[in-house]
Amino acid sequence: MLLSRFNVIMRICGVNWCARNGWTHTKFPRRGRLKLTLLYMFGLCFSISQTVEEMLTQVVGESITFSKKQGASLLYNGGTIAVVVKGNMDSSYIDSFKDRIQWDQQTGQFTIRELKTSDSGIYVVDGKGGVKTTYQLTVYDPVSRPMLTTLFNGSCSVECSVMNDRDVTLSWYSGEKILNQTSSPELSIKLSLPLEVDKQDRTSYRCEAANPVTKENVTFHVPTSCPETGPGPYKERGYWSLMAVMCVLIASVVIGIAVCQKKGRTGHSQDTSEREHADIQYAEISHIIPTSIQDGRADISELDPPRETELTSVYDKIQFHRIVDSGDFKTA
Q: Coiled-coil stretches, from where to where (predicted)?
């Protein structure tokens, strides 16, 4: 930081100009070198009185406008990135800046758009009359939103955590009062901050993660986030009541399934029996004497008249393939 400021001041004094034009100490006599040294010291004091430094911060993706008006050139970390000549700006010196620098013709102010973290550094605006203004710009990423983890270990405690980054602080608030705060120079680690509260507390607490340009917070409400957890007769009674209700429900479901399965098997057996009875047909079988035999008996007078034949009922199940295959019986 001090070295950067020194380099800027030396440029203001004109040391670089002397070197570019071949004015070195070897070309001056001893008395001349003394005068030149005094002149440099005077110029140094004058330049310091004319230089105003400003600390600027901005978030990634936003724009920054340097307050110096009537700027003629813009330098970044010692290198020129934009020059104004006859009302026209040339920003083609560094590729990473050439499409993001704007110059207002009315005010003469320089603006850098779509900032990146790599844009952080020392900027010098060279105005008319040789007055230079130095700025230190720091570009930050947006801070992440913190997360809460509630712990139940006989009491109510909560831990707030967030991913660390440059200049990030993590804090617990009660209203506007800071209860606890932490930060770490180590980047890309997790910052954690615990808080233990009373279960009977009705206060809302706020955990906030912040950097110089952004902040995110989350609220912790004790009654809703940390309910009563201690043992007691009412808690145990409610537990056993819930268990009893669950057992009754499970038993009811099991009994219902068993009854349904039993009814299904009974109905299936009845349907099978009815189908078997419906398939059985009953028929009376009669003994019929062929006509040729009856005619022969009529010519023989000695033969006794035919006696009535004793009938016998035979039950059988009619099957279609037996009727088709048999040609010896005729149905009346």
A: none
Task: Please state whether beta strands 53-59 and 177-183 pair in parallel, antiparallel, or not at all (unpaired).
Answer: unpaired
Rounded to the nearest 5 percent, the helix, strand and coil shares of the chain are: 35, 30, 35
Mind giving me the DSSP string for 140-158? Answer: EPPPPPPEEEEEESSSEEE
* Domain final residue pick, 200, 225, 250: 225
- Cα(118)–Cα(122) distance, integer angstroms: 12
* CB 158 within 8 Å of CB 220: yes
Rounded CA-CA distance 330/318 in Å is 14
Taking only the tens place, the pLDDT of each residue in 95-138 is 999 899 999 999 999 999 999 999 999 999 998 778 899 999 99
Nearest-angstrom CA–CA distance, 51 and 8: 10
| Count of structural domains within the chain | 2
Q: For the chain, how far is it from start to end, CA to CA, in angstroms?
A: 127
User: pLDDT class for 188, splitting at 50, 70, 90?
Assistant: confident
Cα(319)–Cα(164) distance, integer angstroms = 90
Helix (H) or strand (E) run with residue 206 in it: strand 204-210
pLDDT (tens digit per residue) in 139-178: 999 999 999 998 766 678 899 999 999 999 999 999 999 9
Q: How far is residue 68's CA from residue 133's CA, in Å, rounded to a whole number? A: 7
- CATH number for the domain that contains residue 64: 2.60.40.10
Please say which residue of 81, 108, 140 terminates a domain: 140
Mean pLDDT rounded to a whole number for the chain: 75
How long a stretch of residues is the chain?
332
DSSP letter at 199 equals T
Residues 14 and 120 grouped into a single domain = yes
